[in-house]
């Protein structure tokens, strides 16, 4: 199943509303003689090897590696990058790709069909725990014909497979430099992306320069990019104000975004805002004596006030979410609002009374202290306040750092816990499939044969992703009734930049990755 985890609170945008200031014209030369554009982020790579990463490392991978297909700026579906690809025959079970002619890696080695097969096969051979192997669950085998033709044979119909190939996890690597059975450990990258990695200092910066041998759709509007890694939004914004960086990407806190919206005090900066696909949930453990009871979960769903969380905790930098599938994607519904309506302690009391459950119900809510940003603690304090104000629940809050928090929920230790999610790819499937089945992203088995055996297979047989509304609507009806997960909010995306930088509104693809090549420096009038 798909288990890509949410980085500190902020996500990719699909639609942007730029708030621009200043005068100038765009310098589109992209000359290597220009100063690099410096981008700050709180999302540092955990590895430089695509076979080992299912996390924020993808931000770097998209710019230094290449995939067969990818998402250009503004695209809703994968397009040809290293290769032209399509399903062959009927049934969405055979996916064929033909590479561009004379492809090479940045070191001059040939990028051929054998290299593509090697790159995909090693992901499954290495099988890194928490790595991207789970994305390839529908893949049976990879075959090649000549130097340019690659065919993916699937175990079953899967119209989302092109979306999987478009993820940076499926980056093509040089077989001469990446061991077949182990993860590459050094600080080097041998890829074919728009940039090469000139230097890398973990936790500090990555220096990217143009890859002269690149062949793909990226129209690079700058000659070089330096990515600076920060541990806090406040430090990142301070660097932006001090002109030590030119733009921010991931990790802008709600309070900083609100301040940057004030054009009276931020005259030399701009903020690009857009609707994102980041989502946040409460997860209920079915083995807990209280959270395992459906009426208890339904009562919680009846009480939680998402609007209050969005406004008082996140200062309206998130929006209430009443669907497993976020707004902006085919399949989005409002089932949790349709079923539960406005928050009501009286309706919640009726649910519990009818089930013969005495109140107050004891619940322990767990959250992580260092994964989703500084607003997580006040968010859970607000949830506790809401539930206890109903007089129906007695709530205890517990927290752990991410490394021990993750281990705890995988062991089933928490009755109720918070999780964030942003997609591997922009399709409703990636907001439903990861959370159901015996093995799933939240390690709480959710057996729903109608979803796993009927609705998801039906949707994956359909190449037209606009034609799967019925399946995803029904899946969400089931999930709203069960309340095994309770969606809370959907994030927005913000890019803050100096007014000399253009291209922010084009720089995020729908799978939450920043396309560094879209950024460019303006020149004065």
TrEMBL record:
UniProt protein name: ABC transporter substrate-binding protein
Pfam families reported in the protein's UniProt record: SBP_bac_5
Signal peptide bounds: 1-28
Annotated GO biological process: peptide transport
Domain Solute-binding protein family: 90-440
Keywords: Signal, Transport
Subcellular location field: Cell envelope
């Amino acid at each position: 199943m798909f288990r890509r985890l949410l980085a500190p609170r902020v996500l990719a945008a699909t639609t942007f509303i730029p708030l621009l200031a200043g005068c100038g014209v765009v310098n589109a030369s992209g000359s290597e003689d220009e100063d690099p554009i410096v981008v700050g982020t709180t999302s540092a790579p955990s590895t430089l090897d695509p076979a080992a990463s299912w996390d924020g490392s993808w931000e770097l991978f998209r710019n230094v590696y290449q995939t067969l297909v990818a998402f250009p700026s503004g695209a809703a579906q994968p397009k040809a990058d290293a290769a032209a690809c399509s399903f062959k025959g009927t049934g969405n079970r055979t996916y064929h790709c033909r590479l561009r002619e004379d492809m090479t890696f940045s070191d001059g080695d040939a990028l051929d069909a054998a290299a593509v097969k090697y790159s995909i096969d090693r992901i499954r051979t290495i099988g890194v725990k928490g790595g991207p192997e789970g994305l390839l669950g529908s893949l049976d085998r990879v075959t090649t014909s000549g130097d340019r033709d690659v065919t993916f044979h699937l175990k079953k119909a899967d119209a989302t497979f092109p979306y999987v190939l478009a993820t940076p996890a499926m980056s093509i690597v040089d077989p001469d430099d990446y061991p077949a059975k182990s993860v590459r450990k050094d600080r080097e990258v041998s890829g074919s992306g728009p940039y090469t990695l000139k230097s890398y200092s973990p936790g500090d910066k990555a220096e990217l320069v143009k890859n002269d041998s690149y062949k793909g759709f990226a129209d690079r509007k700058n000659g070089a990019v330096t990515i600076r890694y920060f541990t806090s939004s406040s430090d990142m914004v301070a660097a932006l104000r001090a002109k030590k960086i030119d733009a921010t990407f991931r990790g802008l806190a709600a309070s900083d975004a609100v301040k940057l919206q004030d054009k009276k005090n931020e005259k030399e900066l701009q903020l690009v805002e857009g609707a994102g696909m980041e989502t946040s949930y409460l997860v209920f453990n079915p083995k807990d004596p209280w959270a395992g009871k459906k009426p208890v979960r339904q009562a919680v769903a009846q009480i939680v006030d998402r609007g209050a969380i969005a406004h008082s905790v996140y200062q309206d930098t998130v929006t209430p979410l009443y669907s497993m599938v976020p707004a902006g994607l085919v399949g989005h519904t409002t089932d949790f609002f349709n079923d539960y309506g406005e928050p009501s302690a009286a309706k919640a009391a009726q649910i519990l009374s009818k089930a013969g459950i005495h109140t107050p119900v004891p619940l322990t809510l767990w959250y992580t202290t260092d994964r989703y940003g500084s607003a997580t603690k006040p968010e859970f304090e607000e949830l506790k306040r809401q539930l206890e104000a109903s007089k129906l629940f007695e709530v205890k809050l517990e927290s752990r750092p991410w490394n021990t928090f993750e281990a705890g929920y995988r062991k089933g230790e928490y009755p109720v816990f918070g999780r964030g999610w942003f997609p591997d790819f922009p399709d409703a499937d990636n907001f439903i499939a990861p959370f159901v089945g015996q093995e799933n992203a939240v390690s709480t088995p959710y057996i729903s044969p109608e979803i796993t055996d009927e609705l998801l297979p039906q949707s994956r047989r359909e190449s037209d992703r606009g034609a799967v509304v019925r399946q995803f609507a029904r899946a969400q009806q089931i999930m709203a009734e069960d309340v095994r997960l309770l969606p809370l909010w959907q994030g927005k995306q913000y890019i803050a930049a100096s007014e000399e930088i253009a291209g922010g509104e084009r720089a995020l693809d729908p799978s939450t990755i920043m396309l560094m090549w879209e950024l460019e420096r303006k020149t004065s009038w």
